[in-house]
Amino acid sequence: MDKLSVIGVILALVALLIGSVLKGAGLSSLWSPAAFVIVICGTIASILLQTSLVTFKRAMKITKWVFKPPSQDRAAILARLVEWANTARKQGLLGLESQVAEQQDDFTKKGLQMVVDGIAPDSIRAVLETDMHHQSQGDLAAAKVFEGMGIYAPTLGIIGAVLGLIAVMKNLADPSKLGGGIAAAFTATIYGIGAANLFLLPMANKLKALINAQTEEREMIVEGLIAIAQGENPRNIESRLAGYVH
Predict the structure, then answer these.
(1) pLDDT per residue as tens digits for the range 14-30
(2) What is residue 51's DSSP assignment?
(3) Contact criterion met (CB below 8 Å) for 153 and 190
(4) Buried b vs exposed e over 104-134: b needs ≥16 C-beta within 10 Å?
(5) Cβ pair 222, 168 in contact under 8 A
(6) With left for phi above 0 and alpha for psi between -120 and 50, is residue 19 left, alpha or beta?
(7) Which H/E stretch holds residue 45?
(8) Alpha-carbon distance 246 to 243, whole Å?
(9) Residue 217: which of 127, 108, 86, 88 has the closest Cα?
């Protein structure tokens, strides 16, 4: 569990709710069904028009990474690569065959199988780098779904405010309705700006950082597997890959 994300969400809600109370607006002023429909539903509609179904599904799938990021233990990966290098040096590449089935990560499993099969290092690199590129591009596109929502939400908030002010203008003859009408109009702006800056844009940035870190981890795996395929000394492999850990 990413404790910082949990704390961030809690602090965002506290800042918004407690801030509203301290400013004298009260909690009830933050609830507006009309603003919710215009901003939230409008933002979702905008992103659906922009995004392909595959990318949108991927975005929904990786949302959990904000609170429960994929495991990234590079020290353990390095130790495993060095162990494989020692095994390959003592038993040959076929000595790693029993390790293939134990790998839960499909990328690592595919690369290790290619090493065991004796495929040329250049071919292994080409295949794995292509897979890595497509995976990272797909994940980054998914992260940009939240970035796009963060861009559209404030604009939808302004639209909601304008629509609210239009309704107020129609009731100028009744001064008793002006104050409440204007307050309700600006609630949409709060929804749009608050959703974008407290949740959507931070989520997008955290996901992009996690994806970049995952790509670096895969680069480390590629370099390690290529080195094993080339028969490099395990100590040299450990020294060369140590930079990824630190």
Answers:
(1) 988 888 888 777 777 78
(2) S
(3) no
(4) eeebbebbbbbbbeeeebeebbeebeebbee
(5) no
(6) alpha
(7) helix 42-50
(8) 5
(9) 108
Q: Which helix (H) or strand (E) holds 114?
A: helix 106-116
Q: What is the CA radius of gyration of the chain?
A: 26
Separation CA 33–CA 188 (nearest Å) = 10
**Nearest-angstrom CA–CA distance, 184 and 201:** 25
Q: What is the pLDDT of residue 32?
A: 83
- Six-digit token string for 51: 């995004």
Residue 169: the pLDDT is 80
Express each pLDDT in 138-170 by its tens digit: 999 999 999 999 999 999 999 988 888 887 787
Asked if 88 and 228 count as a contact pair (C-beta separation under 8 A), the reply is yes
Which amino acid, residue 197? N
- Residue 44 is encoded by which pair of tokens? 């979702």
With a cut of 70, list the residues of the chain below it in pLDDT. 175-181
pLDDT computed for residue 224 by the predictor: 95
pTM reported for the whole predicted model: 0.87
Quick one: which of 194, 192, 156, 185 has its CA closest to 32? Answer: 185
